[in-house]
Structure formats: structure tokens, C-alpha cells
Amino acid sequence: MPGAPEQLLSLQSVGFAHPARRGAPVQALSEVSLHARTGELLAVVGPSGCGKSTLLELICALHTPDQGTITAPPAVLMPQRDLLLAWLSALDNVALPLRIAGLGRAQARARARELFGEVGLDGFQQAHPAELSGGMRQRVAFLRTLLCGKPLLCLDEPFGALDAITRAEMQEWLAATLARERRTVVLVTHDVEEAILLADRVAVLSPRPGRVVASVEVELERPRNRTDAALSALREHALGLLASEGQA
């Protein structure tokens, strides 16, 4: 199709087993095939222990698959914990990837400072992580992830540790941020509603060893409303797919 986004990420029949500490290796993933197009947000849902985090680690080349192939650009992983450095200010935490890349301190800070107003953190540049709320810390961590400059972002349950109200606010914030600064994203979440709210497509994994059992296209206009009937119908459809795999 002319003008269609190119495929940026491709996994073909990927399998991976964690090395054994005792006994046999633990098969985490089996025959996983999926893809993401440029500028697409792909969400991955499934039960605990089905290999979702391992999938992101494979995409980010932190592990090598035992079977199959992965074609991916350089990717950066943002884990559930923000992993901010307690002794650095919010500004210096965000600027850290630029410093590591060789940019001078003043230039890195200037580039990082430009982003704070865009995510509602203006005035908190000099605050340290202990002085920030959970949602603010996650925004700082996400800005740091953006400044890594990788074409592919892998987000592992980024809002999983937040309370329900803050989580809903952060979902809206992430949707708005990605609308302004479009990136290709693979988002792992256990929250099906979150997946439908944010994603262009949702891949449903089976229990361990994880395999893709369904792919749900989310063809809803943005911004999305969680009370919208079409969104609710897609959520129920995805939950039904999970239940059919014995995951509910």
C-alpha cells in the first residue's frame, strides 16, 4: 500500500528459555511472531509469568533468542521501576543519556530543560527524586528514555506501581506526549484497558511459554475515552481472548 508505514520491528518464531539454576531450563517464550510498524504503539498483554518482560529484553538485545530471528533497530528499555539516580536532580537525570553520549554538561542540561514544560514538570528541574511524586518520577524517567535517541522504545509496565488515579492521569499524559513526539513503542502491560486506550494494536500472549494467540487492531480515533462504547467492546473482546486461553 503506497505511503504505508514500514515495518520497523519483526520477530519470527522466537523462542527463549532462561538458563536453569536448578533442574531444567525454564521455557519463557515459544514460536513468538509479531511486528511493529514505524510510529506504531504495540501493546503486549498476558498473564504474569508468560514472558512479557523477557520479550522486551530480547527486543533490546539483552538476551539472544534460542530459536527464530529478531529484526529490530536500536531500542531502549524503560522498566517498571524508574531507576532515577537519587543524588542527581530531575534535570540531570533526564540529561544523563546525553552526557553519556558525550554532550557537554551545559548543552545536555539545555536540551533536557526544553522538555520539562511539555510534560507539566516546569519548576521541578532541580528537585531530587525523593521530592517527587510517583507520577512525576515516571515522567522524568520517560523523558530520560526519550533522550536516549533510540528509534524503538520498550516500556515494561511503566505505570504498574502507581495508584489508580495517578495511573489514569499518566495514561492520558503518555497518549498526549506520544501524539506530539511520535515514536515506535512496545508497551507491556497487564491492564487490558490501558492497552486499548494507548495502543494501535494489542498482541495477546498465552500462559508460559508465551506465544501470540491473537492480535487485536485498535482502530479508534484519538484522544480516546475509557467510557466509549467501542473501546469497552474492544476491551471485552481482548478479555475474552485471555479467558479462552485460561488466563482470566
In short:
This protein has 248 residues and is an alpha/beta fold. The chain is 34% helix and 24% strand.
Which architecture name of the largest domain does CATH use? 3-Layer(aba) Sandwich
Task: State the total count of DSSP E strands.
Answer: 9
Structural class: alpha/beta
DSSP helical segment count: 7
The fourth-level CATH homologous superfamily of the largest domain is P-loop containing nucleotide triphosphate hydrolases
Provide the domain count. 2
Q: Helical percent range? A: 25-40%
CATH fold annotation of the largest domain: Rossmann fold
Contiguous low-pLDDT stretches (5 residues minimum) are none
Proportion of β residues?
15-25%
Question: Can you tell me the overall shape?
Answer: globular
**In angstroms, what is the radius of gyration?**
18 Å
Which CATH C-level class of the largest domain is it?
Alpha Beta
The average pLDDT value, as a whole number, equals 90
Q: Tell me about the biggest sheet?
A: 6 strands, mixed
Give the topology string: H per helix, E per strand: EEEHEEHHHEHEHEEH
Task: List the strand order in the largest sheet.
Answer: 5-6-7-3-8-9
Alpha carbon gap, first and last residue: 38 Å
Give me the secondary-structure topology:
Layout: E1 7-18, E2 26-37, E3 41-45, H1 52-59, E4 67-71, E5 75-78, H2 90-100, H3 105-116, H4 134-146, E6 152-156, H5 164-180, E7 184-188, H6 192-198, E8 201-205, E9 212-217, H7 229-244
Parallel strand pairs: 3-7, 3-8, 5-6, 6-7
Antiparallel strand pairs: 1-2, 1-4, 8-9
Helix pairs in contact: 2-3, 2-4, 4-5, 6-7
